[in-house]
Amino acid sequence: MNDDLKKLGFRLRPRVVEPKQPGRIAFDERGNAVYEWKDDRFTEDGEEGERARRKALDHPGLSFVEEEQPANSIQNNAKGTRLGYNPYESGLLKRKPAAPKRDLRELSKWIELKKKVGNNSGE
Fold it and tell me: 53 with 41: CB under 8 angstroms?
């Protein structure tokens, strides 16, 4: 397209468009960055001021998107229990499954029964 226009005798000059900015970044007496609005209506309190500020800073190519939290940000570390604990790279350490609990009442009954049988056989 540029070549066709040049053949016809037209010249293309890139046009520089300055974006209209509603304000600029300035610094307060403590050195903190603050945004200085050019127009006084942006500094108003209330809904109208808020609406004007949002409209001034609105950009058609940008939108708000809710960030999704990762499902599980802690990675499993299979080597952590063998190599040792490193707090910066440890990750999630798998524990050995606990042994099933034993019913000690049954054991006590069995021992008592064994004692009684041992005493009866001796007499």
Answer: no
CB environment 2-33: b (16+ within 10 A), e (fewer) = eeeeeeeeeeeeeeeeeeeeebeeeeeeeeee
Alpha-carbon span 77 to 91, nearest angstrom:
5
Q: What is the pLDDT of residues 59-118, one digit of tens each?
A: 777 776 777 776 667 777 777 777 776 777 667 777 778 888 888 999 999 999 999 988
CB 91 within 8 A of CB 78: no
User: What global pTM score does this model have?
Assistant: 0.34
Task: Dump the DSSP string for 107-123.
Answer: HHHHHHHHHHHHHHHH-
Sequence ranges of the domains in the chain: 20-59
pLDDT attached to residue 33 = 92
**Residue 42 contacts residue 52 (beta carbons within 8 Å):** yes
Is the CB of residue 39 less than 8 Å from the CB of residue 33?
no
